[in-house]
Amino acid sequence: MSLHKRTLGKLASAACWLLLGTLLIETVDYVFDARLRARTVPKCRWTDNSSAPDPFPYLARWCFLTKEVVMLRLYDKEGRTLLAERMFDYPDFPRIYWKSKKLGYQTLTGDDEIALPPSKLDLWRTRLP
């Protein structure tokens, strides 16, 4: 076997281990977040953010899961169907705002947003624990 093939084999092996390690870390992080949501969401005191400006048929709600962790949920206008949700760290009352075709929110590391209408991935994530 040539040196070139052995080097490529080692690089491929290292890439596979890196991918598996990353997946393991992300899975563990998700499990911890899911446990936090399961324990705290039923006790949340939800605060409605103002409804989206016309013509967007949405409603945003948020609550503190812990002292510095916020759960933001996007619903249909009637507040019956969950369309997207995000957990983020923020030490104060969250800054949530409507933008053109987006729901924006401020996190410790900067601003983030949910596309309007929410993506299929967002809709799928709302069905996970």
* Helical fraction: 25-40%
Distance between the termini: 48 Å
Low-confidence stretches: none
- Let me know the average pLDDT: 84
**Major sheet characteristics:** 4 strands, antiparallel
Succession of helices and strands: HEEEEEEEH
The side-by-side strand order for the widest beta sheet comes to 1-2-3-4
**SS content category:** alpha+beta
Number of helices: 2
Q: What is the radius of gyration computed over CA atoms, rounded to a whole number of angstroms?
A: 20 Å
* Beta-strand segment tally: 7
From the spread of the alpha carbons, the general shape counts as elongated
β-strand percent reads 25-35%
Outline the structure in words.
By secondary structure, this protein is α+β, with helices and mostly antiparallel strands. The protein is 34% helix and 32% strand. It has two helices and seven strands; from the N terminus they run H-E-E-E-E-E-E-E-H. It has a four-stranded antiparallel β-sheet. A three-stranded antiparallel β-sheet has the order 5-6-7, with no helix packed on it. A hairpin with a 4-residue loop joins strand 2 and strand 3. The model has no long low-confidence stretch (mean pLDDT 84).
